[in-house]
Design a protein that fits this description.
It contains six helices and seven strands; from the N terminus they run H-E-E-H-E-H-E-E-E-H-E-H-H. It is of the alpha/beta class. The strands form two sheets. A five-stranded parallel β-sheet has the order 2-3-1-4-7, with helices on both faces. The protein has a two-stranded antiparallel sheet with strand order 5-6. Helix 2 links the parallel strand 2 and strand 3.
Length: about 200
Amino acid sequence: MATVASPKRRKKSFQLKEKLNLDASTITKIANERKKRGLIVANCAEVPLWIHNHEIASNFLVQREKPAIFDDSPLGGTFSDGFAMYSTFVDVENTEVEFGVNMSGTEMLTAISSMFEHTANGVKDFFLYYSGVGKSFNGDWMAHDADHEQLNIVPFKQIVKRWLNRPHADKSQYLLIIADTNYAGIWVSNAKDLRLLQRHNIL
């Protein structure tokens, strides 16, 4: 006698059990009260002349002219993009943000690790924005070696590793990564495959 296989049960989709009746002003208030810290990097950047005499430049974490190793790169507008992000966040309540222009790979990783140390100061939300060149078919961020004028890669896995090793880690802390670069979609795919949002609060 033939048997009929029972249909497989579909996994239930995630549903929020508790309804939150919050209006926009309440949500904004909650968001503003959380301490935030960010690092914004503009690499392969042509630094405009006006910025050299602007007082805001004294607050930049790193500022140097475009490294010669990127002279042949057709990429443009990275300084404008990074500066727009910095200008947006610098006046946001409970937010500290740093801006680096043409940072080396070592400088970037050091700044990222230093940023994560602010968990000790009660920072809950971290964001990392990069505008620059991405490695072909990989998406890793390309910088320069400040001493030898060679390419220096900032891998996705190194950023994740530093986040996982941050001090005073808890589940209420989040990291938002914004990669304004070519092949950035590969980072998104990797994050999705590794379930970084669900496991480690990385968006």
